[in-house]
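PROTEIN ENTRY
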Amino acid sequence: MDYRTINRMEEKRDNPYLQNTRKHPVKLTRHFKIFDKAIPLMLFALSVVNTDVIAQQDTTKNEEVTVVSAYEPTVNDAFKLNISPKLSEDESEKPDIKYSVISKNIDSRLGVNPIMAAKIAGESAPKLYKNYVKLGFATTLSPYLDFYASMLRSKKSGFGVHIKHFSSAAGIKGYAYPGSGETEANIYGRKFGSRHAFSTELFYKQNRAHFYGFRPDDFPEITLSKKDIRQTYNLLGVKTLYESTYNRSSALHHSLKLNYYYLWDGYNSSEHNLFFNADIHKKVSFFNFSKEQKLGIEAGADLWFNNDSIINENTGIVSFTPYYDLKFSQYGFHIGADVALQMDSSVSVHVYPVVTAEVQVIRSHLVAYAGIKGELQKNSMKSFSDDNVFIISTIEKRFTNYKLGEFVGLKGSVGKYFDYNLMFVNFNIEDMPFFVSDTVSAPSEGLTNKFSVVYDNVRHSSFIADFGFHYKNKFNAIISGKYHNYTLDNLEYAWHKPNFEFSLMMDYNMQDKFLIKAELFSFSKMYAPVYQYSTNNAGLQAVTQVAEEIKGAADLNLGVEYRYSKVLSGFVNFNNILNQRYYKFYNYPSYRFNLMLGITYSF
């Protein structure tokens, strides 16, 4: 087999269109045109490629091929190449890079000069003077003296003396001599320690008055001199206070009070009073949500020893008041109980719940509060004479029981200058005293110029409104109004108790040269019992009680002080500018318009 035969065999093996030539011999030259039409362009290209290969091997020879077979053209199935083209991805390795930071300190020092601390010039403390005196004289023949003497500033102690006197000798047309006077003297001292402070005060007060509440011309049958209608109250006493001054809130804080006074009048009536009070409290932490909790107890004893021309009696009140204070967020609570032992001819126990709740609706601007409380009070010779100096010396002194009462209110401030407090109070009161004219001690029929008291059970409701306006140290004003409603068991009216009270107090500092003060006091009408005497057909005397109306009034006062220097000034006071003659008690008129001139001096 030569190389040509081998080439044809390889050509036949590789070309599928030449594999059946053995069965169908035919000359390629004879059927060239048919072959040219039947074979696809692709196969023709492949045969051309093979022919080119042979031609390259031997281009100088010709050869005739005889195929013995009938020609049967066939087309094989096409096969899709399932090979997708891919781009070769060369795998790359991440280089292992090693680096290091070369640290180097940079000198960042700056040449800054030190800043000197700012010096704040604080307000210098005003100079104090050891002594102060105020002298005046009024058109009602009223001398006035007010004197203070005290130590200068001290962190360890304090000591001072105060003396005051005011009296009137002018008459009131148509009435008996109304002369009156008040004199008082106080000596006080204080001692401050690191843990405790002690203070004491020794005082004396004299109050002189005359029972001028009658018209002498209406009683020609009797003659009463100034001495016959004079009354004098003398009060001598001492007050002491010992209290802790710990800085630590967790310490056991405590305070002790011990007071005593002796009161006697010009009709051989006297009263001794001994008052003791102790308060112990400590910060506690019962609840984790509050840091302001206080638990304490207060105990006290108030004892009276009375002596007059009719009766000698010893009475007193012993009280215990445990309490607990709780504050958290905008809420505050005070919970306690007041246990009071009433001691007179027998011993009785009164228990009053004490509960107060407070919530700051708008912090510092609107605070709502409410609560319940009760109290036992003793009416004494001192409490009555402080309210009305025209009482009889043998006045009846009962206990007044303020049973369970309720109160609710709103308080707060508007801005920096305005504050307010609105409160409604409602109490059930047992044995509330009311002043009435005394008919037993009257020297003549109808001459009822002294007062006694009657007691009644009362339902007392009050609405109280207080407003304050303060502008720096230049202007201050306080407005207060009270409305009362009394529901009584037996009495026709709440004698000598007005339903409405109003007060206005203002002061204005004009360039530290003029100090202007104004006061207005007003009250509505009230009623007093008046007794009318008559004789019946049988010759018996009858007494009829009727209600006498006391008109309401307004008392306007104005004062102006001119400061000539820091130590010397002069003043003038205009009293009862409206020139009203009003009555606070039945048949006891006030002075009309009057004025006072005076000076003040500090040294």
In short: The chain has a mean pLDDT of 86.
